[in-house]
Design brief:
By secondary structure, the protein is an alpha+beta fold. It has one domain. The protein is built from three helices and six strands. The chain has helices spanning 2-6, 21-24, 60-66, and strands at 16-20, 32-35, 42-45, 55-59, 80-83, 92-93. Strands 4-1-3-2-5-6 form a six-stranded mixed sheet. A hairpin with an 8-residue loop joins β5 and β6 (92-93). It is globular, with a radius of gyration of 12 Å. It starts with a helix and ends with a strand. The mean pLDDT is 92.
Length: 94
């Protein structure tokens, strides 16, 4: 129960999120986040070019463990995206 109180997203920690191999394997920072309007899916990307083979499906909890700064955009509305220049920059909402 305490996990849900501390977890900053409205979605459950087990919610599916899409990310890329560059973040998981190469430890690149998350620079772009999309909260899809059509299905509410979350995408966390690094800004590099991506092929379908680069896609990874993990949980929202795993993304949060990789980069706790995503809590600042946990209320990102459907259809919006957030981006930043580098890991130490503030998030911009678009």
């Amino acid at each position: 129960m305490s996990l849900f109180k501390k977890f900053p997203f409205k979605d459950k920690p087990s919610t599916v999120a899409i990310t890329c191999a560059h973040i998981l394997d190469e430890k690149n920072p998350i620079l772009y986040v999309f909260h899809d309007a059509d299905d509410g899916c979350w995408q966390f990307l690094c800004g590099k070019e991506h092929n379908i083979e680069d896609s990874r499906v993990i949980s929202l909890q795993q993304i949060y463990e990789i980069d706790k700064s995503v809590k600042k955009i946990a209320n990102l509305e459907y259809g919006k995206c957030a981006y930043r220049k580098d890991k130490n920059s503030e998030w911009n909402i678009q």
